[in-house]
Design goal:
Helix content is 61%, strand content 11%. The chain has helices spanning 4-14, 20-28, 30-34, 59-79, 103-151, 156-168; strands spanning 42-48, 51-56, 87-92. It has a three-stranded mixed beta sheet with strand order 1-2-3, with helices on one face. Helix 4 (59-79) links the parallel strand 2 (51-56) and strand 3 (87-92). Helix 1 (4-14) runs antiparallel to helix 2 and helix 5 (103-151) runs antiparallel to helix 6 (156-168). The longest helix has 49 residues, at 103-151.
Length: 176
C-alpha cells in the first residue's frame, strides 16, 4: 500500500500545484501533529475549503480529538499557512476504512494468538513431564545399580556402611 504523502506528492507534481509539498508534508506528519494516542486512532483523508477531514475509529477518540482541536489548528496555522486550514471535520468510520483490520478480525487474531500460546504452554508442560519421568526412571536405575553393587560386596560390615551411606545420599545429586 502506498503512503498518502507519496500519492499526493506525485499528484501535485503532475498538476503543478505549488502547495503540493505542504499538503504532502501535512499528511506525512499527521502522526506528529496529532500526537501519541490520537495518531493511532485518526487519519487525515482530505482538505476541502479550509477544513481538514479526519477519520476516527471510535466516538471516544472524536472527543479526545475535539479536546486537541485548537492546539492542532494553531499548529497548522503556524506551520502550514498556505493550506488555509481553519477547522476540522471528524467522522467516525469502521477501522477497515482507515486501512486497519476490523474489530472481528482483531478478535479472531487475538483468539488465534491465545490458542497458539496455550498450545505452546501445553507442549512445554508435556515436555517437562516427560523429562521428569525420564529423570525419575534414571534415578530408579541408579538406585538399582547402587543396590546391586552393594549386594555384590562380600564383607557384611562394609556392605552395611555402604547401605547407610546410600540412604543418606539424595538421588540425582552428584558430588563435585
Amino acid at each position: 500500500m502506498k503512503k498518502a504523502s507519496d500519492i499526493l506528492t506525485r499528484y501535485f507534481d503532475t498538476h503543478n500545484v505549488h502547495d503540493g509539498d505542504a499538503h504532502a508534508d501535512f499528511f506525512a506528519r499527521w502522526r506528529e501533529i496529532a500526537g501519541p494516542g490520537l495518531c493511532d486512532h485518526t487519519q487525515v483523508v482530505d482538505i476541502k475549503n479550509g477544513v481538514a477531514i479526519v477519520y476516527v475509529d471510535h466516538p471516544g477518540w472524536i472527543q479526545k480529538l475535539t479536546f486537541q482541536k485548537e492546539r492542532i489548528l494553531s499548529h497548522l496555522g503556524r506551520n502550514y499557512p498556505q493550506l488555509h486550514i481553519h477547522n476540522m471535520l471528524m467522522k467516525c468510520v469502521e477501522p477497515e476504512q482507515m486501512g486497519k483490520p476490523s474489530v472481528d478480525l482483531q478478535r479472531k487474531q487475538l483468539a488465534d494468538n491465545m490458542k497458539h500460546i496455550r498450545q505452546q504452554g501445553l507442549e512445554a508442560a508435556q515436555n517437562q513431564q516427560t523429562q521428569d519421568i525420564s529423570r525419575s526412571d534414571k534415578q530408579e536405575n541408579e538406585k538399582d545399580n547402587v543396590k546391586k553393587t552393594i549386594e555384590s560386596i562380600e564383607d557384611p560390615e562394609f556392605q552395611a556402611v555402604l547401605q547407610r551411606l546410600a540412604k543418606e545420599i539424595k538421588p540425582g545429586r552428584s558430588s563435585s
